Amino acid sequence: MQTQILERMESEVRTYSRSFPVVFTKAQGARLTAEDGKQYIDFLAGAGTLNYGHNNPKIKQALLDYLASDGIVHGLDMWTEAKRDYLEALEEVILKPRGLDYKVHLPGPTGTNAVEAAIRLARVATGRHNIISFTNGFHGVTMGALATTGNRKFREATGGIPTQGAAFLPFDGYMGEAVDTLDYFEKLLGDNSSGLDLPAAVIVETVQGEGGINPAGLDWLKRLEKICREHQILLIVDDIQAGCGRTGKFFSFEHAGITPDIVTNSKSLSGYGLPFAHVLMRPELDKWKPGQYNGTFRGFSLAMVTAAAALRTYWSDDKLERDVQRKGRIVAERFQQLADYLGEKGITASERGRGLMRALDVGSGERADKITAEAFQRGLVIETSGHDGQAVKCLCPLTIGDEDLLEALDILEASVKAVF
Amino acid sequence: MQTQILERMESEVRTYSRSFPVVFTKAQGARLTAEDGKQYIDFLAGAGTLNYGHNNPKIKQALLDYLASDGIVHGLDMWTEAKRDYLEALEEVILKPRGLDYKVHLPGPTGTNAVEAAIRLARVATGRHNIISFTNGFHGVTMGALATTGNRKFREATGGIPTQGAAFLPFDGYMGEAVDTLDYFEKLLGDNSSGLDLPAAVIVETVQGEGGINPAGLDWLKRLEKICREHQILLIVDDIQAGCGRTGKFFSFEHAGITPDIVTNSKSLSGYGLPFAHVLMRPELDKWKPGQYNGTFRGFSLAMVTAAAALRTYWSDDKLERDVQRKGRIVAERFQQLADYLGEKGITASERGRGLMRALDVGSGERADKITAEAFQRGLVIETSGHDGQAVKCLCPLTIGDEDLLEALDILEASVKAVF
Amino acid sequence: MQTQILERMESEVRTYSRSFPVVFTKAQGARLTAEDGKQYIDFLAGAGTLNYGHNNPKIKQALLDYLASDGIVHGLDMWTEAKRDYLEALEEVILKPRGLDYKVHLPGPTGTNAVEAAIRLARVATGRHNIISFTNGFHGVTMGALATTGNRKFREATGGIPTQGAAFLPFDGYMGEAVDTLDYFEKLLGDNSSGLDLPAAVIVETVQGEGGINPAGLDWLKRLEKICREHQILLIVDDIQAGCGRTGKFFSFEHAGITPDIVTNSKSLSGYGLPFAHVLMRPELDKWKPGQYNGTFRGFSLAMVTAAAALRTYWSDDKLERDVQRKGRIVAERFQQLADYLGEKGITASERGRGLMRALDVGSGERADKITAEAFQRGLVIETSGHDGQAVKCLCPLTIGDEDLLEALDILEASVKAVF
Amino acid sequence: MQTQILERMESEVRTYSRSFPVVFTKAQGARLTAEDGKQYIDFLAGAGTLNYGHNNPKIKQALLDYLASDGIVHGLDMWTEAKRDYLEALEEVILKPRGLDYKVHLPGPTGTNAVEAAIRLARVATGRHNIISFTNGFHGVTMGALATTGNRKFREATGGIPTQGAAFLPFDGYMGEAVDTLDYFEKLLGDNSSGLDLPAAVIVETVQGEGGINPAGLDWLKRLEKICREHQILLIVDDIQAGCGRTGKFFSFEHAGITPDIVTNSKSLSGYGLPFAHVLMRPELDKWKPGQYNGTFRGFSLAMVTAAAALRTYWSDDKLERDVQRKGRIVAERFQQLADYLGEKGITASERGRGLMRALDVGSGERADKITAEAFQRGLVIETSGHDGQAVKCLCPLTIGDEDLLEALDILEASVKAVF
């Protein structure tokens, strides 16, 4: 395995190649193959970008056909067949059946770009500047988005410039079971000297991804929506990681029966790992003037092609939804067993999540790292998240076959038992 | 032509579909085809993203091969064959022959992301916060990059939040021929109460793109480099639009014989219109700690595949360079003739640029819009830039055939003469 | 009473002249005299600036003597007899007996200036930027201090610019009796993705003044000090309103037995209503370089003369302390009776405070305003505070005679009973 | 001379006591007396705070009378006789005769507070955030004002936080005689991608004080006013140092025949060295809501008493104006002779200024320090200013007697000749 040039030329900022120091060459479905031919089951799946697996054949065909036809690959934000088809698929397959009426903003093809566009729109539309984010929230690292991202690792790498325009509040459950953290939010809102500038918007992940797979309670989300409505605060659901079916519904907020004012999607939106993002917004919020937010790769055509294929293939009926829920229960059960096993060994552990966005929390990053390192040796790519990296995380493809799923869970079990 | 859904669902922020209100379906080389079969020669080329033309066959083959082999499409920043191959091509074809020693940071696949990473690194590496940008500079619209972008259109769409951490200075020529604007910069630096915080970095386009195709003088650039060295200021060349051969050299700064500390590339870097960006930095500046700057689509594999193919195809010898310079002279000559023609009609006009990054400045956006609208009717996609949109802009594919080039210039000439 | 010129020429920003629309001409001790000869007992006392009463004769004599001698009135921060004498009095009468070792910074003569200097020093000394403030905290309105002040009234009058460099946490009791708000602070500190940038300092009022006379529990303050020590966070006690004896000790933090790293004093520090402020800091924190923080009126000589006289007159023994505590009990008892009375009338009311910094909370600003308006008619100047103005506030001179005190309390009682 | 306690207890931030390391005890007119009895002529005069000299007997009497009568010393912003009398004097003696119609805001009693209030009002009144300041401008050090202050010494002492909401432009003459720096301002304003956010206001000193006694040309000021009017930019003249007669007119902008929208005064406004400041504004700009900007010492009564006395004593006729102009010519002539002398010694030097705000620029701070140190030994307190401290500065009392003036100039001459 030739890695010298990779080690020499790539910036020290690189991270996953440190956890998985092999050169990957091929991938199919839930499996990655390294240069030496060794296969790995992928429980990371591009941090939630590959919900339909690697190189999904149905989506691939659409991509190859489009390329073969010399369709428009890059056209800034001009009108293309690909864009029209994407909007049609989005409306017919996703929005209409859910009774959602949104306009679509196609910013640069990354999640952070969608978040920047969303919070800027919220400011323009409300005339307020403050954005509420939550403890352990992650919404990207460009400066506007970073203001809403909780991780010190990123926040301290600004060269000392404080972020501005956002304030953090405790996420659901953050202060223990006895405290409804929205009581605190409501008190701050109603208090003229609380220090909380009246917010333009709240940005929330219904299940926090990088923060440790923390699902907000459905009642908490409903109450959050209600508070926002009462105070003319826009509700932004950042569904970049939890969306596109990861929790067992296309939008993660469907579980709670709420309707955000603004939604951001990216990661699995293209369905094939291609960079893509959009912002959905209630039509009356579309206060953008032509060209006020731009970017060279806004509306990436190939991604719109694969996204339309993915939507039509997987979301025209409820098969995938039900399958995700079923597999989610399998993972939950196995994680719970591992938590119980660890409990017997004197290690406090627990499982949590929604759909196939699940975590086995082993209480410390040190422990979690031991488990994931062992798992990698045994053929499973799996990562940690959470403020201390304490949560071993299942983000496997939603389309993973049962055989692969069970093999992966077996590897994880063996790894836990080998280590503790 | 069915455009209702496009008009109904896409945000009002859309812009190019207003100038070119047709649905494009196919493209090849320098030609776009609309749904009604009408062909257009493309003098916009993705705002400089399609230097090798639409669906360039040599690059396309590499992409199709990679897709066929089920190579890794998305792997966060793991090691892949595609990344290794890209780094090898970059080193062998580009850096070594030019005597450049840079490390590579692969941030999110957009220009603004590369700029955010570059200026943040400059702050971390120097312990200073101030970034110098220039009048009419454009470096992206996420909040960190926006601080260095001059356009009020974007700056006023932040919802009232002032950008922070940057200061603007006059670009070369901004104060007329009699003033060397770097005299002002040097005076500010040497003056302890000038109001200029000692800069971490200067970020500069050697030929300003969105600002109106303004080439900085080569001596001015040399002096800028010298001033930076003397004051421990990092020199960042934002080569997102002017790089990848646009000016007749791979890096636009080669003309001036300077060596930036940090370089940003994007747009044509992938060679096929795929989202991609990198930051090059002197190795000793690589102060990043693992994972301090992240993003889901950092190091987009398909783009690395096409980028490597583009580099090897077009930059292993100096053919393209010479061809760009030759065609640049043709465009310059024709633009000068048009400027002369307009002068005879009493309209002050001029041509300027470097390589195939050229403008015909007609003095007002109103005039320029009339010309480009007429040209579109006649089959030429061409746009304006500059603070008032006063510069009709040639950003055609570098690989455009002479026939297409001359036809496009004929259309432009006819358009100018039809309008004035 | 001639008020036209006052109404015509003074900015609409004026506020107390709206509550008390008479022209005051003279004052002595706890009594103000208006132009028409009517006398008022002063329970506002310059919002805590006149702890020793109006025109206190002992302090006045020192001032007159100094003026008569043509001592230095204004000398920037040059050395003067007045400054030396002030530092001697401060050290001998206040610091040494309390075992405190502080250096003294004499910034501009206002509280907000002292706060700006304190938080800037904390940033310079720690290399961190974040300042923790608390809900309902008030620390001044210049932009640096405003970041730590909770009132929307001021925060919304910045012309839309967000303040920066501070974060708000819940003050003691803010989330109800069941929640120790410092649990939340500790959790945020220990959580790497909480969104809380590691603080340079905490700034706290031990009894919040403008926020509604909210005393922090003494155990809460002790724990706050402990948390700060454990995380290398500087503890700033803003003792501008609660200091100088107001709570029954010279420094309000003496009750809790804590030792702040930095202390700000102003308001009653001069003892005569003259503008004056200082910042006390542990000697090792004095990281200022010469002249890094300046201001024309730093170290106002006349104020240092009166301050030294006030310290020597009132703080050489514990008489005043004991007297304040005694009178505080009287006020507390009478306020409690009024709360009980209101309770019987179906109005939830309560009393709270420390020493002679006390409030009768009547639940709403509307009610409180009725009471204070009535009291003014009956000869008592008294104001409200709190986020809704719901707290009728006793800030009478500490030196008020028992007769005046009781008469004022009688007026207040009559006013309450007249209104409800 | 006992200085231990001063050296031990006062923060290292102290500065003037380093240049003049004696303890001053008394002062009268233009003369300071140190503890050892040595007298010094005062060419610093509180950095322009003592325009009427130390302990001016006419003003002193008003102060003593008010103190004797037990007038209100501190009343927040309540109505007092002192305030009414001050407003009357201001209107009758100053505003009416000059045809000026301003409302008065009495913020905290310091210059920086007045600047904070002025720029905040400009933002509120215009809905824009950007404030234009000029190279070498000084407007105070609290965070809001600091954004407009050019000195790195202060700007670098924020603990790394960048200031926000202001941009610097070159002051008159900054780019040499050939460049009218307002051409640059106008170009930036008219250019939509210049990077200059449309300003709420320009803040300018007509003669820069701390920046080195730099007088703006009168035509430049007129053009600046015109540009502001044309672009709906408010013109703020910061007349804190140059106002109150220092330049030979009460307001320094009278020379140019311009009418600022907002004026700040402080320093000599009280006439006796007492902390005091006001903001004057065109009545229609008074967008303050009650209480939106506050501060404990706003409208300091004693200062209003002395200020009224000073205005009536010195500004009821034009005697002082003419006298300042006459003495200014004397100083100018002597400074020019010194500049010529230095020129003969091969040292490039020059004189500049307006009225009694004058500088002898000796080209470097090192040289200037030698001269002022020598002068201090010989009995003259005189300081330097400018970005390098290169300008030996005359800010003597306007009321200085000719004998003292000439003696001081003789000392300065002897000092220059002793050193060079």
UniProtKB/TrEMBL annotation, chains A, B, C, D:
Biological pathway: Amine and polyamine biosynthesis; ectoine biosynthesis; L-ectoine from L-aspartate 4-semialdehyde: step 1/3
Alphabetical list of PANTHER family matching this protein: DIAMINOBUTYRATE--2-OXOGLUTARATE AMINOTRANSFERASE, DIAMINOBUTYRATE--2-OXOGLUTARATE TRANSAMINASE
Coiled coil location: none
Known EC number: 2.6.1.76
Residues that span the membrane, as ranges: none
InterPro entries recorded: Aminotrans_3, Aminotrans_3_PPA_site, Dat, Ectoine_EctB, PyrdxlP-dep_Trfase, PyrdxlP-dep_Trfase_major, PyrdxlP-dep_Trfase_small
Ribosomal protein keyword on record: no
Cofactor(s) listed in the protein's UniProt record: pyridoxal 5'-phosphate
Name the record gives this protein: Diaminobutyrate--2-oxoglutarate transaminase
EC top class named in words: transferase
Organism field: Bisbaumannia pacifica
One Pfam entry name: Aminotran_3
One annotated GO molecular function: diaminobutyrate-pyruvate transaminase activity
Family to which the UniProt record says this protein belongs: Belongs to the class-III pyridoxal-phosphate-dependent aminotransferase family.
The keyword NADP is assigned to this record: no
Alphabetical keyword list: Aminotransferase, Pyridoxal phosphate, Transferase
GO biological process terms, semicolon-separated: ectoine biosynthetic process
Domain of life: Bacteria
